[in-house]
Specification:
CATH topology: Rossmann fold
Number of domains: 1
Number of strands: 7
Strand order of the largest sheet: 2-3-4-1-5-7-6
Helix content: 25-40%
Order of helices and strands: EHEEEHEEHEHHH
Largest sheet: 7 strands, mixed
Shape: globular
CATH architecture: 3-Layer(aba) Sandwich
Radius of gyration: 15 Å
Low-confidence stretches: none
Structural class: alpha/beta
Oligomer: single chain
Strand content: 15-25%
CATH superfamily: Peptidyl-tRNA hydrolase
Number of helices: 6
Length: 200
């Protein structure tokens, strides 16, 4: 039986090997890194999701990746939250964001979907927007027509060199939200300049 303090951490992405390395799967990357860092086995399957239960610092969490495609993420997440009796406000959702330059992270509370199909699916499923999001910047292509190819494409060579440090910073951001609150997370991680291995 879930405790009142249990938090649900969701990474958004697309299932399947073809999408593993894509920008759109940034949320999955962060969840996988959190799982390794905090020794949480993401092996359970339920409600079209894979998930594991454990602790980040002293906070009880469930780390989960919905296995429906991005634009159908909402129902699996809603089902998990309902099953574990976790309120929408106790969710943290990690997702890629083309409106942030690569190297930037941004924590927000509430808000709309900003054109992100995964977030839109969550808003539709829950009928409310009071969950915390960690936006992982992947940058916007110069050509608007190339957005789909951009998010489904892989990180370039320069981005790939910084990516592990950025994923680690995103994990630190999640831990900060959990242990010190959203406001402290915003103060620490909502920078205007992109992260780099030097300033992370």
């Amino acid at each position: 039986m879930a405790t009142a303090s249990l938090r649900l951490i969701i990474g958004l992405g697309n299932p399947g090997k073809a999408y593993d390395a894509s920008r759109h799967n940034a949320g999955f990357r962060v969840i996988d890194h959190l799982a390794v860092e905090h020794d949480i086995d993401i092996a359970k399957r339920k409600f079209d999701s894979v998930f594991g239960r454990g602790h980040v610092k002293d906070q009880a969490v469930i780390l989960a990746k919905p296995m429906a495609f991005m634009n159908r993420s909402g129902l699996p997440v809603q089902n998990l939250a309902h099953y574990f009796r976790i309120h929408c406000k106790d969710l943290i959702v990690i997702h890629d964001d083309i409106d942030l330059a690569f190297g930037r992270l941004k924590i927000i509370e509430k808000g709309g979907h900003g054109g992100h199909n995964g977030v839109k699916s969550l808003l539709d499923a829950f009928g409310r927007n009071d969950f915390t999001r960690l936006r992982f910047g992947v940058g916007r292509p110069g050509d608007k027509a190339g957005i789909v190819g951009h998010v489904l494409g892989t990180f370039d060579e320069k981005e790939a060199a910084i990516l592990p440090s950025l994923v680690s910073a995103a994990c630190d951001a999640v831990a900060t939200i959990l242990c010190q609150g959203v406001r402290e997370g915003m103060n620490r991680f909502n920078r205007k300049e992109p992260f780099s291995p030097i300033n992370i």
